[in-house]
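From the shared-data thread, chain only:
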Amino acid sequence: METIEFVVLGEPSPEGSTKAFYIEKLNRAVITHQNQKGLQAWRNRVATEAQRAIVDRPWVSDCGCAYAVDVDFVLSRPPSIPWHRRLHPTVKPDIDKLVRAINDALTGIMFPDDCQVVSMRVSKDYNDGVRPGAYIKVSRYTNAVPKPRKEQPAKKGRKKAKAAPEAAEEHPYDDPRDD
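Structure, as tokens:
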């Protein structure tokens, strides 16, 4: 497992909802984002920091790997909300829309496609003593195990060599009923 951690400072921007409109004159559909301007700037900042984090590192975004993403979003507390009235940000932006913006920004840099993310841990909180932004950790896992080798049949005319008894390896997910 390889892990890269980096910080993206600034107010996190959510992905926003998309809407599609069909324009008859153009004979095509146009897709718009609810938060187009702020979203693109936020994605660019996330992508830039991700690229800086992998410079001089042997990080290769591999189609055969699985990825885990941990993100802690730190939001600015609105001046109208005193610290004792609301401990956690239970208002917009939605945490799933914040994550969508992060995954879309990291696609093509940290992993080839965000469908390869198999685990996520996400939190959002107010910036009591910490600068607003996204504190991100991406881990890459190997997504395959070596194929077991079959025993080769003994060739005729040769004596079988006595092999040392091997200890049977148990995998934590092996079921003894499968034998």
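The longest helix spans residues 36-54.
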